[in-house]
Amino acid sequence: MRLIDVAHARSGDKGDSVNIGLIARDRSDYPLLVREVTAERVAHHFAGVCLGEVKRYELPNLGALNFILTSALGGGGTTSLRVDAQGKAMGEALLFMEIDV
């Protein structure tokens, strides 16, 4: 299944880094997100876009994961020539990642 079936996301930028919040639609699906959506899998999903490190932070009290993708915006909002220089669409792009259930 795709993440969009069990989660929603928000994303934005901090300089040349993207911040993606991935939130379980149902709290009972949070362990599934923790198991399936690793930093390594997110890095693979954004290969060629994210040129730096991917860090994952667990937020169990919110049923959410937070990812920081470094070197992912071609220099950042004021210097990048990318269509989405502020990372607003990257949360939506993550929702199309397939996971095993």
Q: How would you describe what is shown here?
A:
By secondary structure, this protein is an alpha+beta fold. Helix content is 19%, strand content 28%. It has helices at 30-36, 39-45, 90-94, and strands spanning 7-14, 17-24, 54-59, 64-69. It has a 4-stranded antiparallel sheet. A hairpin with a 2-residue loop joins strand 1 (7-14) and strand 2 (17-24). 26% of the residues are buried. The model has no long low-confidence stretch (mean pLDDT 88).
Keywords:
alpha+beta; four-stranded antiparallel sheet
Return the string of H and E elements: EEHHEEH
Q: What is the rounded Rg?
A: 13 Å
Structural class: alpha+beta
Please state how the strands of the largest beta sheet are arranged side by side. 1-2-4-3
Helix content: 10-25%
Give the overall shape.
Answer: globular
Q: What count of structural domains?
A: 1
The overall pLDDT average reads: 88
Strand percentage lies at: 25-35%
Give the strand tally. 4
Distance between the termini: 7 Å
Secondary structure tally, helices? 3
Which segments are poorly predicted (pLDDT under 50) over 5 or more consecutive residues? Answer: none
Largest sheet: 4 strands, antiparallel
Q: How is the topology of this model organized?
A:
Elements: E1 7-14, E2 17-24, H1 30-36, H2 39-45, E3 54-59, E4 64-69, H3 90-94
Antiparallel strand pairs: 1-2, 2-4, 3-4
Compose a concise summary of this entry.
With 101 residues, this protein is of the alpha+beta class. It has helices at 30-36, 39-45, 90-94, and strands spanning 7-14, 17-24, 54-59, 64-69. The protein has one domain.
